[in-house]
Amino acid sequence: MNEVTRDVVIVGAGAAGLTAAHELRKAGLSVAVLEARERVGGRLWTDVIDGAMLEIGGQWVSPDQEALKETIAELGLETYSRYREGESVYINAAGERTLFTGEIFPVKPETEKELVRLIDKLDAMVAETDPDRPWDRPDAEELDRISFEAWLEQETDDQEARDNIALFIAGAMLTKPAYAFSALQALLMAASAGSFSHLVDADYILDERVVGGLQQVPLLLAERLGDDVFLEQPVTEVKTAGDGVTIVTDNGMVVRARYVILAHAPILYPWIEFDPPLPRLKQQLHQHISMGFVIKVHAVYDRPFWRDKGLSGTAFSPYELSHEAYDNTNHGDERGTLVGFVSDRNADDLFRVSAEERKERILASLANYFGPEAKDPLVYYESDWGAEEWTRGAYAASFDLGGLTRYGADLRTPVGPIHFACSDMAGAGYQHVDGAIRMGRLVAQNILDEARR
Questions:
Q1: Band of the pLDDT at 452, cuts 50, 70, 90?
Q2: pLDDT digits (tens, 9 = 90+) for 18-67
Q3: Among 53, 149, 326, 376, which residue's beta carbon has the most beta carbons within 10 A?
Q4: Percent of the chain scored above 90 by pLDDT?
Q5: How many CB atoms neighbour CB 406 within 10 A?
Q6: Is the Cβ–Cβ distance between 344 and 293 less than 8 Å?
Q7: Domain 106-198 adopts which CATH fold?
Q8: Any idea where the Amine oxidase domain is (predicted)?
Q9: pLDDT tens digits, one per residue of 266-309
Q10: pLDDT at 32
């Protein structure tokens, strides 16, 4: 049996866990990072599939993501802008394809007026919402009891306006149907990005990528930690006694420490045996959050053919199987890559058919945007995070109706020496790598403050 002793043990070698470990070790504490997978990175994963480098997990960097940008600079990584020259594509409910530029979709004048009004109203509401404490809004309970879909129905009779506003939160971010989460949860999502307008603006929210892939962030952080990172060590037990904890893994490793940080998706807590059990409030809380579901589709072609047509590679439609798509061509690559996304119920439906039919349907949707050439990629790959044992969904966990006001304030609360940190519980940067880094820094500082008392 492999037994080690450290000041802090971190469960999960994603951006949050590795950031926390890095900060703690810089402050002079000893650490051990236990990772269930055979790789570091968590929901960041850059891999080569059939000769093409693909960002299987998270990949984009936006201007407001200061914690991520600081880490990228510290690690000496380079970024490059997402390709966005040319026109974007929009497909309406009738299947009509229209080219456009700018942020507002090409819709009827009365629908455009409603879109602008709703965006302005949501921006004003977001300005009054603290992403770290959305439940402090005076109307928080009211907004948390109504689904985002129902809230939109109260706001406008324009179906296309409702569908498009819902797209930015439901399909593109929380990856759940708009009837499955509250209006308050939608405000948190927008507040975490600074404004609802930021979510609407693809040129902002999907601004840059890292040369060589975003997984380099956790890879380089892990490299600095050296032998203190232990792979293929799924944690099965967390025992608290006296002034410390004992962590046991499925492979027989035992770590004794003063503190433990659970730095992984909170939906995985039930797979750990806690002794003594977590408080009943925590156990209830964990039954009211769930992951979304999205298929990230990668299609690599011999060249970025859409650019020859004057297209940016950006496409949107709440009525298409792939509700959004982007030019995802790698830095310096002569080939062209499109990335598309299929979320919530559409993703459910696709996993009820064969892999061949799923691929055919998805590529047909991309062809509706970009033309028949999209049906014949050199490389095709589906990122299915719902099938990842140590994640079980994407992009992050969110609360059911009423859950955010009921339990949100308790999500990060420590239980004795047990601390919690991941992008799922971030305010700014919620469900992004930036939020994971912020949570890693925060929990490390909390432990340092506690250790110094």
A1: confident
A2: 999 999 999 999 999 999 999 999 999 999 999 999 999 999 999 999 99
A3: 326
A4: 98
A5: 18
A6: yes
A7: Guanine Nucleotide Dissociation Inhibitor; domain 1 (1.10.405)
A8: 16-448
A9: 999 999 999 999 999 999 999 999 999 999 999 999 999 999 99
A10: 98
Q: What is the pLDDT of residue 1?
A: 58
Q: What fold is seen in the domain 3-43+215-278+415-452?
A: FAD/NAD(P)-binding domain (3.50.50)
Q: Quick one: average pLDDT of 367-386?
A: 97
Q: Given a cut of 80, is residue 195 above it in pLDDT?
A: yes
**Residue range(s) of every CATH 3.90.660.10 domain in the chain:** 46-84+205-211+293-387
Pick the CATH number of 46-84+205-211+293-387 from 3.40.50.720, 3.30.300.30, 3.90.660.10, 3.30.710.10: 3.90.660.10
Over the stretch 214-245, which tens digit does the pLDDT of each residue have? 999 999 999 999 999 999 999 999 999 988 99
